[in-house]
Amino acid sequence: MIFPDGLLRRDVAGPRAAFPGGTPGARATPRGGAPGARATSPGGAPDGPVTSRRGAPEARAALRLARRARRLVWRHRVLLAALCCGLAAMSAVQALRPAPPPSTPVLVTARAVAAGTRLTGDDLAVREIAEDIAPPAALRGPQEAAGLTAVVPLPAGLALYPGVVSDGGVLASAPHGTVVVPVTLADDGVAALLRPGDRVDLLAPGPGHPSASRPGTTTSSLARRALVLPTPTHRAPEADAAGLLGGGADPAPVTLVAVAPDEAPDLSAVAGMGAVSAVLVP
């Protein structure tokens, strides 16, 4: 609005707006009311918008919480940075780690098994091992080991394959590269003490080394570290008890041993004479 004095003034509809006939800067007095009262419309409602202060406490609380969170983050910035670095390193290791090699189920011994022991379910367990270290002919399940016998002492966790277990057959229980010779020992008591898996040196009278216990006699070494094998379970001693002449005497026990092929000829030549002595060796 342009006044007579030539000055341009803003027409303010506020509490200090100039009214016609009034003093500039005086407080406006609403019609029908006291000075300072809120102007109302003819319907009784306030002329201007009513500002609600109900959300002010929540806003102040949110502001305080945000400031506190910023202070905590700044105070522990080093720890947070270290934690982020650790998570990044862990993620990198997980991403760069190669995939595990393919595995296969293999039958192993759940506990140590002595040589000559017939395997049962308590002696066996199935383990997943890498295919590249599994024996080519390893047994895969407990049903494959039913009725098998340990040829040699088996430690716990050993993968089972035909070279260390057998079905009770004579040749199947012999280690690779050996032959089996049945021997009648001179002392039946020693034969009864031997167990499958024992190692013995086999000696017999003859040209060779002088005997220390019997001066004037010599003994020859027939086999070194021969492996005592389990006797087949299908052998029936009572069927052989009568003998060829029908006598009632029990036959001498036969011990099965695995020896080197070059030792077999001399050993088999005297094996049935009952003159072979056995010395237990480690």
Can you walk through the features of this model?
The protein has 282 residues and is an alpha+beta fold. Among the domains are: 103-166, Type Iii Antifreeze Protein Isoform Hplc 12 (Alpha-Beta Complex), CATH 3.90.1210; 171-281, no CATH class. It has five helices and nine strands. Strands 5-8-7-6-9 form a five-stranded antiparallel beta sheet. The chain has a two-stranded antiparallel sheet with strand order 1-2. The chain has a two-stranded antiparallel sheet with strand order 3-4. Strand 6 and strand 7 (218-228) form a beta hairpin. InterPro entries: RcpC_dom, SAF. Residues 13-56 are annotated as: Disordered.
Largest sheet: 5 strands, antiparallel
Spatial strand sequence of the major β-sheet = 5-8-7-6-9
> Cα-atom Rg, whole angstroms?
52 Å
Q: Which series of helices and strands comes N to C? A: HHEEEEEHEEHEHE
- The low-confidence runs, each spanning 5 or more residues with pLDDT under 50, are 11-23, 209-213, 234-248
Shape descriptor: rod-shaped
Number of strands: 9
Roughly what percent helix? Answer: 10-25%
Percent strand equals 15-25%
Mean of pLDDT: 74
What structural class do the secondary elements suggest? alpha+beta
**First-residue to last-residue Cα separation:** 125 Å
Count of individual helical segments: 5
Biased composition (Low complexity): 14-44
Region (Disordered): 13-56
Organism: Myceligenerans salitolerans
Keywords: Cell projection, Cilium, Flagellum
